Automatic annotation (TrEMBL):
Entry GO MF terms: 3-hydroxybutyryl-CoA dehydrogenase activity; NAD+ binding
Coiled-coil regions, chain positions: none
Keyword Hydrolase: no
Keyword Oxidoreductase found: yes
Record-annotated 3-hydroxyacyl-CoA dehydrogenase NAD binding domain positions: 5-183
Organism of provenance: Thermus oshimai JL-2
NCBIfam families assigned: PRK05808.1
Domain of life, source organism: Bacteria
Domain 3-hydroxyacyl-CoA dehydrogenase C-terminal: 186-282
Residues given in the record as CoA binding sites: S49, K56, S119
Protein name: 3-hydroxyacyl-CoA dehydrogenase
């Protein structure tokens, strides 16, 4: 069965980007969220991103319009009943994902591929909640989705090879490079990245250096395009905390214990760029202002 329609659930930072690259690849897209204002914001983010591609001459005016024309938004999960591939990108919370996949598994059509963009929650567990573990897979995009070339592809214990093959093909059609990794906590990306971010937060908490100096060391000394504290703000501190908790629980090793400062900032609602304040402050367009 050919993939024609891609359903995306969750229209936040990741879901809006996934909807965009799927539409750019020529798929019909149904983008679902629980909030109308989030859907509107997602569409304007997509419009802005396509506008930048147009300015740089990477797409034509026709591509721009055709891409937007392929994206439909909805508040109803039932509108995903005809989707051939469903990519879930809601909050990094196993309870929320479980409730969603129990519903999605029941309403998706029998041959649909079911994929989660989770950063760290075991694919094998989400697959079980969906009731269709052989058609379930991890399809982990990177932020910002329209620019980052990688998709980590994670097979759960019962994922069929045919499911992997179709997701690899879809990722390539979206212009991405799929790399397959096994279903262990944090996969490869966040097992390596998050402990570094967590350690940067601990260094800040201990007063080893200012936030600017910590980020500067990694940018100027290690050639990272962004320092770890800036990157944490960009990812979302709630997402970083959720991933650290999965690593800590999954490996049972205190080297993955989330920094108390990270926990405190999440409790205070300082989630980074998406709320305007994290380690740094941001204007409403997400530009760093302090
Ligand atoms: P976000 O907070 O920007 O967006 C989450 C969206 O899900 C919100 O718009 C919310 O309204 C919606 N939502 C929540 N429950 C829902 C439900 N039951 N049905 C429909 N929509 C629902 O989060 P973000 O950053 O986009 O992350 C989403 C997922 O992608 C998480 O699993 C995260 O771990 C993963 N991810 C995040 C990356 C990042 O850099 N932020 C990178 C790669 C993966």
């Amino acid at each position: 069965m050919e993939i024609r329609t891609v359903g995306v659930v969750g229209a936040g930072q990741m879901g809006s980007g996934i909807a965009q690259v799927a539409a750019q690849a020529g798929y019909g897209v149904v983008l679902v969220d629980v909030s109308e204002s989030v859907l509107e914001r997602a569409l304007s983010t997509i419009r802005r991103s396509l506008g930048k591609f147009l300015e740089k001459g990477r797409i034509t005016q026709e591509d721009h319009e055709a891409t937007l024309g392929r994206i439909r938004t909805s508040l109803r999960l039932e509108d995903l009943a005809e989707a051939d591939l469903i990519v879930e990108a809601i909050v990094e919370d196993e309870g929320a994902k479980r409730a969603l996949w129990e519903r999605l598994g029941a309403l998706a059509k029998g041959e649909a591929i079911l994929a989660s963009n989770t950063s760290s929650i075991p694919i094998t567990a989400l697959a079980r909640y969906s009731g269709a573990p052989e058609r379930f897979i991890g399809m982990h995009f990177f932020n910002p989705v329209p620019l980052m070339p990688l998709v980590e592809v994670i097979r759960g214990a019962l994922t069929a090879e045919a499911t992997r093959d179709r997701v690899v093909e879809a990722a390539r059609r979206m212009g991405k490079t799929p790399l397959e990794v096994q279903d262990y906590p944090g996969f490869v990306s966040n097992r390596l990245l998050m402990p570094m971010i967590n350690e940067a937060i601990e260094a800040l908490r201990e007063g080893v250096a200012t936030k600017e100096a910590i980020d500067g060391v990694m940018r100027l000394g290690m050639n990272h395009p962004m320092g770890p504290l800036e990157l944490a703000d960009f990812i979302g501190l709630d997402t970083c905390l959720a991933i650290m908790e999965v690593l800590h629980r999954g490996f049972g090793d205190d080297k993955y214990r989330p920094s108390p400062l990270l926990r405190r900032m999440v409790q205070a609602g300082l989630l980074g760029r998406k709320t305007g304040r994290g380690f740094y402050t941001y204007d409403e367009k997400g530009n760093k202002v302090g």
